[in-house]
Amino acid sequence: MYTIDQNLLEEFRNEFDQDKNAKNAQAACARTEIKDIVFLPLNAARLNGDFSVEVKTSAVTAQEKSGRCWMFAALNIVREQIGAKCGIKDFELSENYAAFYDKLEKANNVLDLAVKHADDSLDDRMMEYILDGFHDGGYWDMAADIILKYGVVPKWVMPETYQSSHTATFMKMLNSLIRKDVCELRKMVREGKNPDERRKEMLAEIYRAECIVFGQPPKCFDFEYRDKDGKFHADRNLSPKAFLEKYADFDPDAFVTITNEPTDRKKMNSYYRFHYIGSMAESNVRCLNLPMEELKKLSIAQLKDGVPVWFGCDSGAYGDRTSGVWDPESFAYGNVLGNADFFMNKKDRLEYRDSFATHAMILTGVNLDENGKPDRWKIENSWGKEVGKNGYFVCSDHYFDEFVYEVIIDRKYLNEAQKALLEEEPYEIMPWQV
Length: 434
What we know:
By secondary structure, the chain is an alpha+beta fold.
């Protein structure tokens, strides 16, 4: 074992005392946020400018202090379909409505797993996964499943509450309640008792709790609006599913999750699925892992056709909320910490858990240089209009290469070789391997 002794500490102390740059950095860090110290505005300025390919979308949304970005991004795709069909500008769907059912389905899924694995040891990997609980986060396929099963409603039909926009406290309470339920169900199964009736009571308790903090989802509503020409429309007594079917061209089977995760577990040009991960027990989170150049080519093709692209990235990497920039060249982290080298390649970064997809948004544009290559990407975020450029962000192509991990693409843009991969039986990734 390597020991930290007084001689070693004295050596470190002397080295630091003689380092003028380190002393300057120490002074800067004492009263300033590190991100602001290392930010290089002139480097970020090179990302200014318009975009040669751009999709016009409705107003920027705000998820506030919740982890529902993936649902916001999915609903922002659907709302563009509805807005185009009805001629509505700045239309928004209720994220609260969809997230209500997402949490109810996730709770039911956890209870289902608890019964199926009642005889497993608490030290088993599956039980560790179950007892970790669940959160606001999710994937495109999970959002698509919720939307397809429960439909959608305009935001004014089920507006936000304080708790839907500030979910941390309720999610902690909900997970505590579910862990208690898991404990009880495991005991019942081990004692040879049928848990079905008790499970129903548990779900009713969770449903009631959600209604208290989020509001009860509507069974039907009136869809009233004025189109871009000022004409008034009213469609009465619509169910959320009927509304989706009538006004949105939503076909989740048309979309494919394309990932770029060059790890040993996830081989390039392979088809895989996340086992047990999903809002619903029957959910299928399936992904086609492709080289980055192919992922970008597919994204550009979809944007050129006027369709925004749902995508997932590591929003904590090299980003500035004020200027709305994600770009490794615009942040000199190594300089402020004594020329420390932070670089890891994408494979190592994923395998050693230094980075992963933490945020979902939609791509609404890309700028192609004189050779037709992308150099920057336009992003519609869900952090409100107060950040970035009225809520819009830009990322460099370098950031895209390193920190974008998945996009949702209509399968019609895939080539024949890529489509053939979708016909293969996907291999499984367990939850703790994600």
